[in-house]
Amino acid sequence: MNKKWIIMLLVFILVLIVFWQVVLDDGEGERQNSNEESADEPDHQQEQEDLLYSTEDMDYEIEVIGEDLEIPWSIAPLPDGRLLVTERPGRVILLDGGEVRVLRDVEHVGEGGLLGIVTSPDFEQNRQVFLYYTYAAENQLFNRVSRFTLEENTLTDETTILDEIPGSQFHNGGRLKFGPDQKLYVTTGDAQQPERSQDTSSLSGKILRINPDGSIPEDNPFEDSPVYAYGLRNPQGMAWHPVSGDLFASDHGPNSQDEINLIVPGENYGWPIETCSEENPQYQEPLACYTDFTLAPSGMDFLPWERLDETPLYVAGLRGNRVMRVD
Fold first, then answer.
1. 141 touches 163 (CB < 8 A)
2. How many Cβ atoms from other residues are within 10 Å of residue 223's Cβ?
3. This prediction's pTM
């Protein structure tokens, strides 16, 4: 994938976030780490944000590669350069190919709905696509991960590989990514039940790690459990460092206190007991914590053409519709 195409992908991710932010600010979202602009925001805070997000020294070009989408949430590039896009109400779009699937049983309520999408590392051989979505059963909300096959321009053969992840109107997590180890990583929110994040028998408020068939890897930190890390509130971004292979994740905090974390298998990240915890050996200290303003971090990635000795992490923020560079 060349440099221009990756730039286009990053811009498109930001376009998706703009759409999502518009919907949340239109009355659907009741985000406790509010993304709304405050009339009382101090001048020094605005100066700090302007400094962090300055683009005057950057050379970039914006190109729109998708428009007229309905609450787009996540994208998955195909080997031929086309993109699969999820729309939260339940539709999967293939750019340059139109609609490929409508999930009729998606429960689109609040922040729930059709969320994450990722293709198999062996996509060219097996044509597999994985989706994360919210559904209702017995008057409760849940999330699941299902595997499909992309045939022509249609997703077929749904197989559920991870089910009954607690769901809610808010805090559903929903990001799917394959790691360098070929395992599928899944972010889940606390589903508005914060205490579940500390319960390693619950799938809420976690980063999960499973095999592509839904089975549990033998080297997971908790025996017979998909839980990989816990004590998270609503993680929605994951990225692996291209040199070290370390996993980084973003987490929405309450009323700011958004975090960027280095994910260590089996470790506790503190929610709801602590946020932005420092000098407490019980919890992993975040690499970055934003307390002066709300970033509302979502998708994130490293850019492969950056110098390897100074590879920065780029994080898309719902608040202000920005991409932030984290060194």
1. no
2. 7
3. 0.85
Q: Phi and psi at residue 209, in whole multiples of 5°?
A: -140, 120
Residue in 44, 108, 171, 241 annotated catalytic: 171
Q: What is the pLDDT of residues 69-82, one digit of tens each?
A: 999 999 999 999 99
Condensed to tens digits (0 to 9), the pLDDT of residues 172-189 reads 999 999 999 999 999 999
Mark whether 171 is an active-site residue: yes
What are 12-61's pLDDT values in tens digits?
454 444 444 433 433 333 444 433 333 333 343 444 444 344 445 567 78
Task: Parse the chain into domains and list their residue ranges.
Answer: 3-326
Q: In CATH, what number does 3-326 get? A: 2.120.10.30
3-state SS string for 101-162: EECCCCCCCCCCCEEEEEECCCHHHHCEEEEEEEEEECCEEEEEEEEEEEECCEEEEEEEEE
